Each structure stands twice: as structure tokens, then as C-alpha cells.
């Protein structure tokens, strides 16, 4: 019931103003840290800008992290947890995430920066929302308000993803269904997909389109042939023995791939959408009309994208002192850090999952909860997850 009221309020607000810019929405508040940590937003912005200054790839990574967090169990920073106190395998290790997550270290730096200013005040879930906005702005989007006051969740389970999360092989009906289950419209889907105007995808995410596509065509005929030929040059044929982590990454937008803009939509119309799910947006009449409209009108898309990001940021948020917590470290639920003693089995697992190895800048990351068996081989998991489609 509260969720329904919230959605009605949200829609009313959106219709009235053309943007979800109320200063308080269902308990979230723009300027939430004005009294308790007035410099937090600025400090996070500085960290994000510094990190992006050193590596442009951080900007798309942060936007994607935020979306992946909020879409599954809401904006509760569950994507950041290394371990789950309940013993579940965390979301981070799902095939939709794993080593493809970018920007985790930036969130750690932002968190330790705000912790040194105002201990136990600014939640990791809010840091993700601010950082995604700051990343979008650094990539060229006009700024937008981020309401805050989210608290951090205390569980994370990769089993929450299958059947609930979009995968590269999905087409519009399934994408629309998944988004609508989260209270997001088809227009939100098309507007948010514009995030694919920055960053890129590893070859194995779309190699089914350029090798052995069907029994009649080796290459997906919906792809522009020159584009497909270029992709084949960069991406080697599918080979289960290839290490996915070594797979090349291809920019979604070969023209303006570091700028968050509407070139993504023009590329789609030119049959240069990288993923099946990107190309799908021009195959459905309704979403195609939106793609064409966004390709024509950059300002309208910027507005819709910002509104949709604000909506994403309100998904199943934890609000109030009795819900969740403000984590001390974004990778661990409070109290978990004391339980940690490295074990041989754990060390072995860290070798199997090099993308989860502790990072030297963050000594606390060496502290991990007692080990539990790793469920599947990571490469098998990736390939099964993406090409068989989670469900
Ligand atoms: C509609 C369904 C979607 C699907 C199936 C999808 C799938 C993917 C895949 C497979 C990748 C490549 C990951 C890699 O190989 O490293 C990717 C990258 C990315 N996605 Fe999506 N995505 C979707 C929607 C979104 C949304 C709604 C956002 C943000 C609002 C988003 C933001 C990004 C960004 C920024 C990247 C580039 C990441 C990087 O370069 O590090 N995606 N997405």
C-alpha cells in the first residue's frame, strides 16, 4: 500500500512538473545531509571527478552500478556487499555483475572520505545515487537533484537476479515486463537505455550475434554489415576456453563513446546497436517511435533520462532508523568486520575470483567473513547466465 501511494504521488508529481523534483518524495529529501554532513555531496562529487579524471571508464561503471543495485531489492547498496551475513552468495558474484562491475573502488574512496568527515552518517546507498548523478554530469548530462535518506540493506543474494534482471538477449516484451515489475515504464526503459551511449560491453555479451547466429546466417542480419565486420575484427570467435576476463570490451557508441548523449539512438537507427536488447528497441513499433524522438531531441532525452534516474533511485528504498543501517564500510554489514580470519579455502577462492581480491588501498577488504563454497565455475556461470538467459 505505501508503495502504491508513493507511485501515485510520483506520477502526479511527474505530470505536474515534468520532472520528479519534489524536495521530499516518500521520505527521501533533497539536501538530506544539509545539517548532518553538509559537505558530503561536494566531497563525493570531488572523488568521482578525480577518479573519472584518471579513468573515463569509471563514469559508465558508476551509472551501471547504481542501476544494478536499485533494480534488485531496491536502492540498498546490496550490490556492494562482498559477503552476506546470512551466508548467501552476494549479488556481486552473479553473472550479470562479477568482474564486469566497474567503480567499486571509487565508491570505497567516496565512503572513506565522507566517513572521515561525518562518521556513520552517509549511507552507501545514497553515495551510489550521488555518484551515478555525478558520473552522468561528468559525461555531459545537465545536473539533476538527488533526493537522499536511503539506508543500507543487510542482505545480498545472487539468487535474487535470475528471472528479475534484464539480460543482453532480451527483447522488448520481456524488457518492458521486467521494468514494469519495478514500476518503470517503457519510456523509462528507452530513456535509461541511453546510458549505453557511454561505456561498452565485453565481446562475449554479443558474440552470438556475430558468430553462428542462426542456421541460415552466421551474423545477425539486423546488424549493419560493416559494423558486424568491425566487431568480428575486434572479437575472436566464441570459445569456451577463452578467459572471459581477457575478452575485449567494445564501446557501445563508436562515435561519441565518452559523452552521454543521443548518438546512441542514432546508432540504433543505423543498425549499430551492440546488444540484442539495444537493437530490440528499434524492432518494436512503440519503442522505435521513442528512439526516433530521442534521436531528434537531445534536450527532451536529457530530461527523461534524469527523471528516470530519479525514479530508479526511489525503488524500494529503506527509510527510517528502524530500517537497515548506515554501513561503516560499503562492502560489509556493520559488525561483520570482527568475524574475519583468513582461511586456506578462502584464499583459494580469492585466487579463483581475482576481481574480488583485496585491494591494497583498502586494508579492511582483507577482512572477510568465514568462507563458504563457491557455487559454480565463474566462466561457466557467465556463459550459462548470459547465453541461456538466467531462467
Ligand atoms: C535494458 C536492459 C539492459 C541490458 C540487457 C543491459 C546489459 C548490459 C551489458 C551486457 C553491458 C556490458 C557489460 C560488460 O560487458 O562489461 C552493459 C553495460 C552498461 N550498462 Fe547496461 N543494460 C541494460 C540497461 C541499462 C540501464 C537501464 C543502465 C543505466 C541506467 C545501463 C547502464 C550501462 C552502462 C553505463 C554500461 C557500460 C558499463 C561499462 O562500460 O563499464 N544499462 N549493460
From TrEMBL:
Residues 361-381 are annotated as: Disordered. Disulfide bonds join 37-118, 70-75, 124-330, 203-235. Its EC number is 1.11.1.7. It comes from the Eukaryota. Residues 366-375 have a biased composition (Basic residues). InterPro entries: Haem_peroxidase, Haem_peroxidase_sf, Peroxidase_pln, Peroxidases_AS, Peroxidases_heam-ligand_BS, Secretory_peroxidase. The active site is at residue 68. It is found in: Secreted. Substrate binds at residue 166. GO terms for biological process: hydrogen peroxide catabolic process; response to oxidative stress. It catalyses: 2 a phenolic donor + H2O2 = 2 a phenolic radical donor + 2 H2O. One of its GO terms (molecular function) is lactoperoxidase activity. Its cofactor is heme b; Ca(2+). It is an enzyme of class 1 (oxidoreductase). PANTHER family: PEROXIDASE, PTHR31517. This is Peroxidase. It comes from Panicum virgatum (Blackwell switchgrass).
Amino acid at each position: 500500500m505505501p508503495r502504491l501511494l508513493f507511485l501515485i504521488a510520483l506520477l502526479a508529481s511527474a505530470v505536474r512538473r515534468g520532472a520528479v523534483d519534489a524536495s521530499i518524495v516518500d521520505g527521501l529529501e533533497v539536501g538530506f545531509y544539509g545539517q548532518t554532513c553538509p559537505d558530503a555531496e561536494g566531497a563525493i562529487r570531488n572523488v568521482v571527478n578525480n577518479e573519472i579524471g584518471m579513468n573515463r571508464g569509471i563514469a559508465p561503471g558508476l551509472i551501471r552500478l547504481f542501476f544494478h543495485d536499485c533494480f534488485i531489492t531496491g536502492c540498498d547498496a546490496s550490490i556492494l556487499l562482498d559477503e552476506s551475513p546470512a551466508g548467501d552468495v552476494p549479488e556481486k558474484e552473479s553473472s550479470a555483475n562479477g568482474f564486469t562491475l566497474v567503480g567499486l573502488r571509487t565508491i570505497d574512496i567516496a565512503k572513506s572520505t565522507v566517513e572521515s568527515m561525518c562518521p556513520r552518517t552517509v549511507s552507501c546507498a545514497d553515495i551510489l545515487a550521488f555518484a551515478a548523478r555525478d558520473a552522468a554530469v561528468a559525461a555531459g548530462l545537465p545536473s539533476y537533484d538527488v533526493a537522499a535518506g536511503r539506508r543500507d540493506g543487510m542482505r545480498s543474494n545472487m539468487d535474487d537476479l535470475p528471472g528479475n534482471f534484464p539480460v543482453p538477449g532480451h527483447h522488448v516484451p520481456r524488457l518492458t515486463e521486467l521494468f514494469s515489475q519495478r514500476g518503470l515504464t517503457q519510456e523509462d526503459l528507452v530513456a535509461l537505455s541511453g546510458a549505453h551511449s557511454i561505456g561498452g560491453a565485453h565481446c562475449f555479451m554479443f558474440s552470438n550475434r556475430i558468430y553462428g547466429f542462426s542456421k541460415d546466417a552466421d551474423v545477425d542480419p539486423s546488424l549493419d554489415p560493416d559494423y558486424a565486420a568491425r566487431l568480428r575484427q575486434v572479437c575472436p570467435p566464441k570459445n569456451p576456453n577463452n578467459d572471459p576476463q581477457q575478452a575485449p570490451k567494445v564501446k557501445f557508441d563508436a562515435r561519441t563513446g565518452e559523452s552521454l548523449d543521443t548518438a546512441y539512438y542514432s546508432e540504433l537507427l543505423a543498425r549499430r546497436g551492440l546488444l540484442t536488447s539495444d537493437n530490440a528497441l528499434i524492432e518494436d513499433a512503440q519503442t522505435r517511435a521513442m528512439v526516433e524522438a530521442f534521436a531528434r531531441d537531445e534536450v527532451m532525452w536529457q530530461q527523461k533520462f534524469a527523471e528516470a534516474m530519479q525514479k530508479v533511485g526511489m525503488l524500494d528504498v529503506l527509510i527510517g532508523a528502524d530500517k537497515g543501517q548506515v554501513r561503516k564500510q560499503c562492502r560489509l554489514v556493520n559488525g561483520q568486520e570482527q568475524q574475519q580470519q583468513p582461511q586456506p579455502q578462502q584464499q583459494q577462492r580469492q585466487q579463483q575470483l581475482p576481481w574480488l581480491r583485496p585491494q591494497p588501498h583498502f586494508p579492511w577488504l582483507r577482512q572477510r567473513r568465514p568462507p563458504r563454497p563457491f557455487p559454480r565455475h565463474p566462466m561457466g556461470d557467465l556463459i550459462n547466465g548470459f547465453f541461456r538467459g538466467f531462467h
